[in-house]
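Renewal narrative, Specific Aim 1. Our central claim is that a sequence can be written position by position from structural information alone. The example that follows is taken directly from our test logs and has not been curated for this report. It begins with the structure tokens describing the chain, in the order in which they were read.
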């Protein structure tokens, strides 16, 4: 399952969904496969292993693992231009491809 986990207050939610949809298209997958989950409580964050909004996940595993504690918060990603609210498309594609490699044709 491909999941985008967000909080309601995240200013990057719409952009994250567009970015993930584009990455899926480029990987030959249907963007309609995205499940959007809204994290509202600290307990939900802990249960989901959620490290900030937006989080990109495949089968419950964060594509950009974090060593921080799970939290209901916004998230930043390291990019070539410094910190940003979204990862770069190519980094997201690489993380997706790696996560999907072991899944074979289950999603393709």
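The sequence written for that structure reads:
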């Amino acid at each position: 399952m491909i999941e985008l986990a967000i909080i309601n207050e995240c200013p990057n939610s719409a952009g994250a969904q567009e970015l993930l949809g584009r990455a899926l298209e480029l990987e030959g997958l249907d963007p309609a496969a995205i499940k959007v989950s809204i994290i509202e409580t600290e307990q939900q964050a802990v249960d989901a292993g959620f490290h900030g909004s937006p989080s990109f996940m495949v089968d419950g595993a964060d594509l950009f693992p974090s060593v921080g504690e799970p939290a209901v918060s916004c998230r930043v990603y390291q990019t070539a231009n410094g910190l940003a609210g979204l990862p770069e498309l190519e980094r997201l594609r690489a993380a997706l491809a790696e996560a999907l490699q072991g899944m074979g044709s289950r999603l393709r």
